[in-house]
Structure formats: C-alpha cells, structure tokens
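As a warm-up, study this chain.
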Amino acid sequence: MAGVPLADLQARLDIGEDLLLQPGSEWEVSAPLRFRVPGQRIETAGDVLPSQYARLRLAPGLAGTIISGEGVSEISIRKLVLDGNRDQFDRKKGTLPAKPFVDLGGPGAVAQTVSRCILLNTRCSGGWGAIHVREGGRDIQVTDNVVVGSGPDLRGNGTAPHELPYGWGDGISMASPDSLIRNNLIIDATDQGIMIQGAPGTLIQSNVVAAVSREMLAGIALYEPFSDYRMSPPEAERYDYSGVVVERNLIDAFGGRIHVAIPMGPAAWNGRLLGKTLVGATVRGNGLSGNAMGYGYVVNGVDRFTVVSNRSEAVFSGLGDGFNGRKPVPPAAFLYTPSAAGTSVLQSEFKPAGSDLVGIPRNAWEPRNMRGFRSVGYGDAELEAVIRAAFLEMLGRDPLQGELTHWSDWLKTSEVNADFLRVQLMVSPEFVQRFGRVSPDSLHAWRGRRWLTRIIEGIEKLSDGTPEKWPSARRLHACLWAQLYVR
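Now compare it with the structure written out below.
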C-alpha cells in the first residue's frame, strides 16, 4: 500500500478490505480508523521484524482513539507501532476527553486479536485503556504487545506541555469474558497496568507491569463491582469474577510508586464500595519486585477467591489515604480483612488487618498544587528507586552515593516530581556530551524515541532476528534495563 493516501485507509476499510501496510511506512491519523466487517485486518504486510513495522501516529489535535473495532468480530491488529503522540497534544482546552486508544469488544464482538504491537505515549484518558476491551464481547486475545506510557500520573509525571490534569489511563483493560491477556510488557501506565472488570473466564498470564518514571495506582486490579456481572439476587451486591485466573505475572515498582500491586475486592480500593463483594477468581504464582511499592497483595471484599503460591521481593512504604479520616494499616506484602474474605483460600503469608484496610491508594485526596497535581512526600526506599531509575534512563548509569543524597534532599524540599529531576539531568554536561542539547519541552518525545529504539533492539535480539518468534515479557523487561547502561 505504498503511496496510498491517508483518506483511502478508511475508504478501504469501509468497503471491507484489509489494511496490509507497507513495511516501514508511516501514517499520521487524523480520525480513528474503524473496522467495518468481520475478519478484517490492520497490520504490516509480510513476515517482518519490529524495525520494519508500519507506524500509525495520532495527529497533534486528535483526542483519544486511533483504532476502533467495537462490535466487529474476528478482527486483527498485528505488527504495528501505534504512537499516541501525546507530547504533541495541543488543544485550546488542554484536556483530553475520556476515550480509549485502541477500542475493542462491545456487543457481539467475538475472537478479536491484538498481537505483536508496540504502543507508545497513548492519548487515552479518564481511566480508559491503551488497549480497552468493552463489555459485550467474548474471546478477545491481547498477546505479545508492549505498552509504554499511558497518561500522566497523580504527580504530573508524563504530562504533555499543553495538557491540563489529569488524564491518567490503564495499560490494558478487559470487560469481555473468556478472554486472554498474555505475555504483554506494560510500562508506565498510570491508572492500572491491567484492569479486570468482571470478565469471567479470563486468563491474565505471564505479563510484566512496571513503573519506571510514573506512579501507577495498581499493577493488576480486581476491585471493580462491574454492573454487567452483578449476580442474583442483585441486592446482595455480589459480582461474578468466576474463572478469572491471574497467574505468573510480574509487577515491578522499579522507579515509580505502584500504590497497590494486586488489589482484590472493592473496599481496599475505595471506602465508598464497602459491602460489595467479588466472587470466584484465582490469583497464583505471581511475583512482586522493586523498591517503590506501596501495598502488595490486598484482600478486602471477596468470596471464593483462591490466592496461593504468590511471592514478593519488593520493598513497601508510604501509608495510604484511608477513608473518612481513618488511616489504613501500614503497607506490607500480604494483607487481608478476615470479615471480608468469605470462604476464600489464602496462602499462609497473609496477615489480618481488621477493618483498617480501606482506601489504601495514596494521593487521591491531597490538595492540588499550582499545576493542578497532587503530591505527598516520598518514602526513603521509594525516593532512592525514583532517583536510580532517572539516572539509568537519562545518563545510562547508577547514581553515586553523593548524588543520591543531593537529589534526595532536593526532591524532599522542592516537592517536585520525577520529570523535574529528569529535566535537571537533561541539562547536565554529562547528558549533553552524550546526547547533545535537548529542549526540556521535548523530554517525553526524546524518551519515546529512546524507548522505542531499545524495545525494537531487545525484541529482535531475543528473537534471534526471526519474525515468527517473540520473547517473553520477563526476558524483554530485563533486556531493556541492561541495554540502558553505558558500556
């Protein structure tokens, strides 16, 4: 399709054709591309490596969605770079409407696929996902993708120069049952890395969710009492999560706070949801790591859950907000409320927290600063993790002890976010010598290019240059950090 005008892309979809894009081609998308008939495909033509993927980029003024497959069965999105171009977002109001970036599911949608795509700086907002699967579909497959940057966080990290708060977003959100989320690497989503909204029978397996430069509210979230899955009798306020399995995932608070790694049950998340119960999920064999973790595995408001064989190597700090002026218990790896766990089976590491396990995310109610964001002090372990991640990303090395002390004191007294630290490093002689002069307004554009290069190199290295292969999310996650060090 080399040389095909952009307007013809939608015209071809309208008449039922596939979009098989020329390898290496780039397209600026000024309106969402919409699937029209079952079985259509949008992908790069041929057996190609990620360095040859076609690239679709949102136009500067466009808000939200780049591809919509809502309600259309058996469609496929594969082998693409999908660029939300968030740093070039510029509208008079400065706010993004609440829309997903890739919009799937919906009534009657069956067997949709998103696979082997790289999504960057997605322009989703209002808690919608970079890949969002609506209720009403079934058997939706989201596998072997990389998502980097989904909205700004509570502190304002990730904000475009002309953007007003908040605009946070999920990495992947799923509301269609009997679906699959497998082997995705999600970096710097700012609402939930993976959000499960009921979706009975869905498998969430072998994904990596990592906070690098932005805070995330949750890693993998099972807390929403989603109305479509309300069980009978409705007055019981029980919601069907039966057959949902969350297994062998890694949640890494490497350089940004993850407020709750895996919240299970509505009350732990929000005191206004006390009395609502989720029923029937299994959470097993997952791992936590990183020094910037808030709370780990948290259970409050479930029944018939099985939570076993999970582990943690993370460091936990930073008390949650609580509810109605009552603070929750301090963070830890395994916490539960015995009176709100029903007949669940929980591994022996869980510690009872009584009724003080409500509203455990932090920063939800703090006063806003002059820029419209919220901020409270960093914990010591969290602060060190933030600085180490910034140095590695911007300078390709670990900070010296004196640098850790200096920047720790600076972040504590200035009450600014990690983006400001990165800007300070951008103007340092060390950065300029290595990368040249880069405008601070171009921080996220520069980071996007750097991450995209590393992701492509990592995938191709780990797959031995074979297009049919795709590495595990864990191996790719480890490889990306190794690539950032200056040799």
